[in-house]
Write a structure and sequence with these properties.
about 55% strand
Length: about 110
């Protein structure tokens, strides 16, 4: 696993899930771009209270930054094109909500 820092926008709302042992966790998808403006889908899972609460406070399209363990993957789209993706176990999530609602340029 790679330690990573990813910034992007939430794709849809995060959702709460429960494992077979009854422990809760959160899953989400984030759309991130690299410097070449290529898009990456980051499949996020969080277990700890703070990142879970931060993800649940966001809505579709809101910006966020995540840190945690990354696993690179690939997937094939409907046209048969192989595309990169990342799986992340988020340990920290930073949002504008947590930063005091700071706005760009402020």
């Amino acid at each position: 696993m790679i330690d990573g820092l990813v910034a992007g926008r939430l794709m849809g709302d995060a959702s709460r899930r429960v494992d077979k042992a009854g422990r809760g966790y959160i899953v989400a998808r984030v759309l991130a771009r690299n410097r070449a403006d290529e898009e990456f889908i980051v499949n996020v899972i969080a277990f700890d209270d703070a990142p879970c609460a931060a993800l649940l406070a966001l809505r579709d399209g809101e910006s966020l930054t995540l840190s945690g363990g990354l696993t690179p993957k690939v997937w094939t789209d409907k046209q048969g094109i192989v595309r990169p993706s990342l799986d992340m176990v988020a340990t920290h999530v930073l949002t504008a909500h947590q930063a005091g609602g700071a706005q760009a340029g402020a």
